[in-house]
Design a protein that fits this description.
2 domains, binds uridine-5'-diphosphate, Rossmann fold, alpha/beta, 19 helices, seven-stranded parallel β-sheet
Length: 470
Amino acid sequence: MTRLHVFFFPLMAQGHMIPTLEMAKLFSSRGVQATVIATPGFVTPVENTRKSGYNIGIHVMKFPPENSELPDGITSLDQMNSDDMISKFTKALELLQEPFEKLLEEYHPDCLVADMFFPWATDAAAKFDIPRLVFHGTSFLSLCISEHVRIFKPYKNVSSDSEEFVLPNLPHPLKFKKTQIPNFDDAGIENDFAKLLTKIKESETRSYGVLVNSFYELEPDYADHFRKVLKRNAWHIGPLFLSNKGEEEDKAQRGKESAIDKHECLEWLNSKEPNSVVYICFGSIATFTSKQLHEIANGVEISGQKFVWVVRKGKDEDQNENWLPEGFEERTRDKGLIIRGWAPQLLILENKAIGGFVTHCGWNSTLEGVCSGVPMVTWPIFAEQFFNEKLVTEVLRIGVSVGSKQWKRVASEGVEREAIALGIRRIMEGEEGAEMRKRAQEYKEQARMAVEEDGSSYTDLSALLQELIA
Ligand code: UDP
């Protein structure tokens, strides 16, 4: 019998590429011939994976594509710092259809797993009679909520930005404010995005189904709701990174080259007591104003806790670092580590010294937090992060909200130092923190069991593979 051949086509963004590559590794370890379609900016992580012993194929596709309005040198979504650039980026994604179809025609895989941001992929695959699976890279809960928001537009019925409203017909009465939900109905770029979202949803309903990087025990109500109420075919196969029992080097190299020597970082952590350090990181895309970075520094200092803080705004962009309070690094020399750039997040979170996580609630980070068994301070910024926050704080009750109120893609601000310090203290100290940690540890254990043989995610992937083979 010939092996099943699956194409994996990720979006050019760390938060999508990392789990897609993990998915390719997982499928490969289950006997599938896996091929990743990589654009030039993401060849290195695929090649690193191949070097570490995974038999994964790679096809490189030019990006930006021919006739794109994007300047050369653009490789990924995190470089988009204006609405205009984002608009050009999404148009460039559409231009990939033609070269991608040539690959499908030439190699004719048995199945295509393509990122949600390629809604045309369902039709492209159908031309060659290939089933297309969609990968969103988010939680069941946020898949359910975003569909409700898209259809019912509940924010239209509120009279003010501060008025809270409950999303109807969901397993929990979750409350939001208008400012926390992306309003893509306004004119301009957001309108382009609304059209793209509609295309995404249409292509999803016509696709073979949806792959979800989550596990059933984490969000059973939403996994059921997505399948039974929203009538989607879905397979939960996560947490993807747990299925790959990678070596330290493999974990250190996820995504980008680390801005800190992993030994230096781990040595520093190893010198600290268990559960005594809070890890602060906001993913690969979100940016803050200097004013907000200043508030974070002050908040962390007021909290009195030890910390590892990842700051994306590197020295190159702001030579004088005017956001750092005077003498901050001298005063916190023994207490804290600032990583300017890319951190080896998985290795850090897995270290015993880490006792809490301040996160922007990107789904990968949220899941990595869950699997580390630490309580979280939730600080959503944009995308579907405000939805994931509710899972952590209200459904799982393993975190506290910092009180972020404004959905904003770039230059986020508005959270004050007192709220930051209070959030950190609540997860790191006292009974409330201890209870959240206990619950988080239980989810950590369940996550590990889900990916073991006969676990819920393992079994769901087996079912999918059997179906595809049949
Ligand atoms: N990440 C990392 N180092 C960093 C920042 C992020 O390794 O300095 C990884 C993180 O572990 C996660 C991914 O990048 O796997 C970010 O994905 P997420 O969905 O959390 O957020 P996004 O970047 O998409 O907003």
